[in-house]
Amino acid sequence: MIDQRIKFRHLQSFLEVARQKSVMKAAESLHVSQPAVTKTVRELEELLSVALFERDGRGIKLTRYGEIFLRHAGATISALQQAVDSVSQEAEKTGPPVRIGALPSVSTRIMPAAMQRFLAAETGSPIKVVTGDNAVLLDQLRLGELDMVVGRLAAPDKMTGLSFEHLYSEQVVFAVRAGHPLIGEKTALFERLRAYTVLMPTKTAIIRPFVESFLIANGVPVLPNQIETVSDSFGRAFLKSSNAVWIISEGVVSRDIGDGVLAALPIDCSATRGPVGLTIRAEALLPSAHLVMMKAIREAAALLQ
User: Fold this and answer.
1) pLDDT in tens, 116-147
2) Which of 51, 66, 147, 156 lies 20 to 30 A from 221 at CA?
3) In what order do the strands lie in the sheet with 148-152?
C-alpha cells in the first residue's frame, strides 16, 4: 500500500536532486532554499527507510535504492504530467507533446525525414527535439523530461529501467576539409595524425571508449594536439579553416562529405561500429502520437539500409 505521507514535493525534490546531482543546484532550480530540499529528501528517505543518495567526491550520486526509486518516480511524474497535458489538450483540441532526445548524428541523418513523416500524420501534437550527449539525454528520459531518445546503445548499467530498439549501426570517421594534405595518403596515416590538431569526442561521449580503443589498437595511445568537443557547428567551422582532423560519428558529417565540403580519410573504422536505436522507459504507456513518431523514426532509419 502506498504511504499517504509521500507527497508530490518529495518526488519533485528527489527527481531534481537526481537530475542535478547537487542539492544546491536542485534548490536553485526549484526556487527554494537548500535546507528545504535537504529536509524534503531526508523525509522521503525516512519514509522509505533507505538512503537514496550517497557522496561521490564533491558531489552526490544515487544509491542502488535511489536508482530503483528513480525508475518508478520518474514514470509517476511523467504519467501525472501526461494526465495534466491530456486535460489541457482536450480543452484546446491539440495532441500530446512529443519530446525527443537525439544525438547530433541522428539529428542530422534521420530526424529531418522522420519529422516530415510525423507532420504528414497531422496528430496536432507540439514537438520538442533536444540534441545532446547520450548520457544526458538518457538521464532526461528517466526523469520524464523526454519521451524517447534516439542514440547509441548505452552500457548495461546505464540501461536499467529502459528499453532499446535497434535501428541501424554507425561507425566513426576521420573527417577533414576538402583538399587536406592527408587525402589520398594510404600509408602511415595514424603516425601522421600526430602532426595535426585532432578534434576528439569528450570523455563523457558514448563513442569516446570506441575511439580510444581504436587509436590504441593502431599504435596511437596519445595525440599531442587534441581538442575535446561535442559541438558539430564548431567542428565544421574549424575544419573548414584549418588542417585539423575530426574524429566523429559518421552521421554528423555524412551530408558534408556527400556535398564535397568535407572528406573522410581512407581509414577502415569498422571496428568502431555500434548500434543506434530508440530508447524509451520500459514501463511507459505511450500515447498514439508518440507511436506515430516512433514509426516515422523507424521508416527514416530504414532508408539508410
Assistant:
1) 999 999 888 999 999 988 888 998 898 888 99
2) 156
3) 127-131, 98-102, 148-152, 274-281, 162-170
